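Re: the multi-chain job from yesterday

Posting the exact lines I submitted so nobody has to dig through the queue logs.
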Amino acid sequence: MKYLGIEPKRLRFAVFEFTGCEGCELQLANKEETLLAFLGAVDVVEFREVSSARNGAYDVALVDGAISRTDEVERLREIRARAKVLVALGSCACFGGVNRMKNACDLDQANREVYGDHPKETLPTRAIHEVVPVDLKIPGCPVSKAEVERIVQHLLFEVPYQFPVYPVCLECKQHFTVCLFDKGQLCLGPITRGGCDAPCPAGGLGCWGCRGKAADANIDEFRSIARERAHGEREIAERLGFFGGFEEHS
Amino acid sequence: MLFRTLAKPDFKALVERILASTEVIGPKRVGTDRHGRPIHHYLPVESFDEIDLDYETTEFSAKTYFLPYKENLCSYRFQDDDWRQEIRYRIQPRAIIGLHACDIHALIKLDKALARDFFPSPYYISRRKNTFVVGIDHDPCEGGFCRSLGTDTATHGFDLFLTDLGERYFVAIGSDRGFRALSGLPAAEITEQDTEDYLRVRKRIAAGFKTEINVQNLPNLLDIEFESPVWEKWGGKCLSCGSCAMVCPTCYCYGVSERVSMDFASGAKTKQLYSCNLIDFAVVAGGHNFRPNRQTRLKYRYYHQHRGFMEAYDEPKCVGCNRCGRTCLAGINPVEVIRDLQAEDET
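And the result, structure tokens for all chains:
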């Protein structure tokens, strides 16, 4: 496999999961139309969800999930020490994801609520970059396979990539989607990073912000727009806090 | 200009005849907003009855049928040490039924920038030339200020233009294609009565405008108010989401990106319509951003609308449809922004 006459870098990929639903890993095996080409381009040496093979020798670690236990901290540090490139995959890895909601509760009470009389050792949820340095981030719940492909192309051939920094609104408009604020719903589209192609608003569901904050997101104006349309403080805060991508504002 | 009258059932027959061989786009009611007002979009229709010619306005302009939000500019195939390029222009005929005068003026403005300037775009021209445009007169839409910009009537830029006279349409024929389209239909020569009725309707429409802006000397005013606090006031509200430029019938700025296929055997160049309000619009090689602030970006959108385009093409780019004003969640709208600037000028 060559691209423009250039040989690819010889990179071994490994996929690891932490606290999360593993949906982002499932995404890696999705998009059938390019799956064979994708698997032909990456040399996967470790990926528990699709193969039992174990191999400590890898160059790129794709890390899915958030960090919420001491053993996860240790395992992540070990991965970081081995990997030349560490990619945070999905909203949990990038922001903590829905797991992060736990941090707003009393930790012991949350533990009891979930595990009853058999509490587990647990830490406040952290994103990957809050524990070890991260080289590349692909946010989204789940992650977009198309964006994973672009990152892989970038790593193999240094193909330039640029993920959109504009808000979701732009893509709603490009799809003729009726604004959900016009239908009386709350939507984080005006402040959430686009690039997802805005499928949720097109399906009638306001954006929940899984891709995190758009560059230069105007949070103050967003709040006043939501308030003017009679959305309460609690509803706004819950929405902003859902995926952890707006934590400093929720 | 040639004029005819056409009974409404005969116009329906005309559209059905077009539908038999050609894709037809028309204003279609797609829902109701939270205030109970109907929402219309220009969408492909299968039958004449799906078209609602009594629509007030559409949320989006019909721009995407001439300047798609996303368009493949060319594809590449790599082979050994060589590559082949493939370019396809859209040439399939299409008809758009029911554009209002402001949207026809939008096409006239786009023609100036994209069909006749130094770099005519074959992508735009092939779509424009292969689109049959039927316009229609209508009573002023709420908040529209097209009359202030002289775009409330259209005398060219279309194939046919209708004015509703009750049982019949007064039809202005704007091209030989439009003339030929009427062949075989009982389109009648106009009578004195028709002309009288037409002028009466035009007067009624003209008298119905409630929203106005004063665009006289606006290019100079914009230069004088370059540092005005008005830009901070409105720019501070801007969400930098680009919705205004997306719904605008004349905003044509775009970005181009290149993608390689996952098997590295092919690639494509894609054009995406962009907005000068987006944070990275003015980022150049090396990462410098010429317009990192919301207020500067908003200001430049107004400059292009009312000053830059004026300088290049002798008319403002804005047609006064107020779609940007309606779509903006933050309530930024040309009428208030321009009035604020004028008030600033008076103090």
